[in-house]
Design brief:
CATH topology of the largest domain: Rossmann fold
Number of strands: 11
Family: Belongs to the universal stress protein A family.
Distance between the termini: 31 Å
Helix content: 40-55%
Subcellular location: Cytoplasm
Oligomer: single chain
CATH class of the largest domain: Alpha Beta
Shape: elongated
Order of helices and strands: EHEHHHEHEEHEEHEHHEHEHHE
Structural class: alpha/beta
CATH architecture of the largest domain: 3-Layer(aba) Sandwich
Keywords: Cytoplasm
Number of domains: 2
InterPro entries: UspA
Number of helices: 12
Function: Required for resistance to DNA-damaging agents.
Length: about 325
């Protein structure tokens, strides 16, 4: 059950506004829980100097940390004065994504929120290298928040993979819909939850190489398989057929297009978190979709996901 009670907000020190913190407050005001505003800081110049003793260098690092703590308290002062439970924490660490994930592990946070920027001309979101590291490696769900107000009557869209090639997709689909329903019922009034899936068309080169191959027959059969799988999925959760969508095309085109059409407030998808050679050879379909989104994103890992980042040493 998605009952997020222990939220970690990754603060962006370059911004005077913190949409991720605002979204976290929105969640706890409706669902309860506590918030930790977390910021890793680092300045290489403090590590390179040979003129300072270890004690002096440590004192200077602490001074920088204290300055950021004061700044962060100012960022959150409206919420703190309103009685919102927000813990402020700043650490010195040269790898921000490692520091954030280690904090998730150490304090057993069940949701990570981080702001992501919106490209003014293209409309799509811009994901930084830090965003990608968190999406791929963070063991808890990651909520990427855009710097815009949540749309009125914004719906929730769940991107499901109805391919029967890999069994783990079925379990992940169930987890996505289950957690989305739990979360939406807790924090959104009368939410519309839509399920969307995309299936690819037959490659044109097959028709050339195999003259007897009929692409229309293949495409119709593939659509039929997806419709049957979608029916089974929606019936498990008592979702009306009008809230389910199966479309022909690439997921990175179909899913963002559906988000725009429905003015979605957030899209929920599963991300396998592949890295290294497995990512290079197998690819990450979710990541191609993410690159084209214009709304909030909630990325959820499958059960059994093994985080490649180890807990910090005491």
């Amino acid at each position: 059950m998605a009952n997020y009670q222990n939220l970690l907000v990754a603060i962006d020190p370059r911004q005077d506004d913190q949409p991720a913190l605002r979204r976290a407050v929105y969640i706890v005001q409706r669902n309860g829980g506590r918030i930790k505003a977390f910021l890793p800081v680092y300045d290489l110049s403090y590590e390179m100097t040979t003129l300072l003793s270890p004690e002096e260098a440590s004192a200077m690092r602490q001074g920088v940390t204290n300055q950021h703590i004061a700044w962060l308290k100012q960022q959150a002062h409206y919420y703190l004065e309103a009685g919102i439970d927000i813990e402020i924490k700043v650490v010195w660490h040269n790898r921000p994504y490692e520091a954030i994930i280690q904090e998730v592990i150490a304090d057993k946070h069940d949701l990570l929120l981080k702001m992501t920027l919106k490209h003014d001309k293209l409309g799509s979101l811009i994901f930084t290298p830090l965003d990608w590291q968190l999406l791929r490696k963070c063991p808890c769900p990651v909520w990427m928040v855009k710097d815009q107000v949540w749309p009125d009557q914004g719906s929730v869209l769940v991107a499901v993979n109805l391919s029967d090639e890999e069994s783990y997709h079925h379990e992940l689909n169930l987890k996505l819909v289950r957690e989305t329903q739990d979360l939406a019922n807790q924090i959104v009034k009368n939410p519309e939850i839509h399920l969307v899936s995309a299936y690819p068309v037959a490659p044109l080169n097959i028709s050339v190489e195999l003259p007897d191959f009929d692409p229309s027959v293949y495409n119709n059969a593939l659509r039929g398989q997806h419709l049957i799988a979608m029916k089974e999925l929606r019936q498990k959760f008592c979702i009306d057929e009008k809230y389910t969508h199966v479309h022909e095309g690439l997921p990175e085109r179909v899913i963002p297009g559906m988000c725009d059409e429905m003015s979605a407030g957030i899209v929920v998808l599963g991300i396998l978190g592949r890295t290294g050679l497995s990512a290079a050879f197998l690819g990450n379909t979710a990541e191609h979709v993410i690159d084209h989104l214009k709304c909030d994103l909630l990325a959820i890992k499958p059960d059994g996901f093994e985080c490649p980042i180890k807990a910090a040493k005491e």
